[in-house]
DNA recombination protein RmuC (Echinicola soli), 414 residues
Amino acid sequence: MELIVVGLIAVNVLLSSWILVKHGGNRSNSKAIDEKFGAIKQDLNAQMAENRKEMALQMNQQFKLIMDMVRESGKDQNETLRDFGKLFRENVRDFNELQREKFSDLERRQEKMLISTEARLEKMRETVDEKLQKTLETRLGQSFEAVSKQLQAVQKGLGEMQHLATGVGDLKRVLTNVKSRGILGEYQLQSILENILSPDQYIANAVMKKGSSERVEFAVKLPGNKEEPVYLPVDAKFPQEAYHRLLEAYEVGDKSVMEAAKTALYRAVRKSAQDISQKYIHPPYTTDFAVMFLPMESLYAEVIRDGGLAQQLQQEFKVVVAGPTTFAAMLNSLQMGFKTLAIQKRSSEVWKVLGAVKSEFGKFGDLIEKAQKKLNEANNELDTLVGTRTRVIQRRLRDVEALPEDEKDKFLDS
């Protein structure tokens, strides 16, 4: 509207200017024009005022109309929002109910699955336990039977060792100076051997050199490096005449006679030692020394009274002088060696038996270890099965729980 009024004013101005130019400055006309201009101005002002009023009225009406439309639109929007909220809450309620039903169904399925899994696992456990029990009973029975047999063998071997050790008490006979039966020479030597050694531990009238006719009175069997034994030659010597002369010299008390008798006795002993060395010492079939047995303790004491003589006999002729007590002690020492060797041999057998027992116990340990591995494998299978089912359930629950935080709060508040 204002643009129209401005346009009219511009038209009037242009028209007035044209009139002035056309009439060339006529004052009367100028006055008329001024009056006409004034009238036009008044009309224009009046028209503009009227237009402003009309414009204001139209604007008020338009504003009122807009406000009514806004109010009406707000009411519609509120009703729409209320309807939307109501519908949304109903949808959320239905969704929650559906989720509860799904969760309940999932829980029921999970419980059924767990019950079924536990039943299957219990059945598997019973089967495994039954098989393991049977296997263990069978293996343990076999192992203990073998161990019992081995222990019986060990007990038997120990009994034999104890029987071998009973002969050690024979050493007391030497320590208490018990004299063997017999009187002199070979008979006394044989008696000592029979009392101390077993018959298979010595031989009588033995040939010490192949092809020789010389026979030693007795030879003691000693263990050799191989299966063949080594013989210890033992020969009884009794220089009776020289010894009787020495006894007579002691009775007379003549020192020169005693010295001469001693010299004769020592000479006879040396001669006997030389004969023994030449005839009976033949290594390696025999030992590198021999024993000269003197049947009387007094004779033996007389020979060893001169320490140089006994040492000389050992160095030159490899002959050891022994009286009845000394020879018995020597035999007992040898007997102890024999029994120690036998015990060592039996000990090796016992160790073998114990080794077999150890092997059986090792097998028993292996069986126990295998059974433990089977139990561990069954336990691992249970853990794997439970872990797999748990992960499947968690994956499904993870999909169900995928809901924004704000919507979850709204659902819970409703």
About this structure: Residues 177-322 form one domain. The beta strands are 202-207, 215-222, 230-236, 290-293, 319-322.
